[in-house]
Write a structure and sequence with these properties.
Blueprint: E1 2-4, E2 7-8, H1 32-45, E3 51-52, H2 53-60, H3 64-76, E4 80-83, E5 86-89, H4 91-105, H5 109-121
Antiparallel strand pairs: 1-2, 3-5, 4-5
Helix pairs in contact: 1-2, 1-3, 2-3
Length: 123
């Protein structure tokens, strides 16, 4: 069963994703804790409101203690913000990553100028 864009997760009989790749799909150097942390980021990002650790744990099908440790780490490294008992994406770190991605996708000025010049010539 797929729970996201081309992500395959092992599911139990009731169809709830366990949040881990099957052994046959994961590479030998796969780091489960990193995958779990990224899954937590996906879940928090998918929520319109700040969410509680217990809800996150339920969504990613991890024990609350494991989820709490991963949440604390994600807060410490700047990917999540904690307010009282809820978590949300830390906009500063996420925007920083987003701007890096945008820079990678932004066309070079010379290419942009070339297309603009061609456009002016066809009018």
């Amino acid at each position: 069963m797929s729970t996201g864009a081309s992500r395959k997760w092992i599911c139990c009989e009731d169809g709830v994703p366990h949040g881990r790749l099957s052994d046959t799909e994961a590479p030998k150097d796969f780091v489960q804790s990193v995958a779990r942390a990224l899954r937590i980021l996906d879940v928090v990002a998918g929520s319109k409101e700040p969410v509680r650790a217990q809800w996150i744990a339920s969504e990613v099908n991890l024990h609350l203690a494991t989820t709490s440790h991963l949440l604390a780490t994600l807060v410490h490294v700047g990917y999540l913000e904690r307010n009282e008992r809820t978590y949300k994406l830390a906009s500063g770190r996420i925007l920083e990553l987003s701007s890096r991605l945008e820079q990678d996708w932004r066309p070079l000025a010379s290419v942009t100028e070339s297309f603009e010049a061609r456009g002016r010539g066809h009018r």
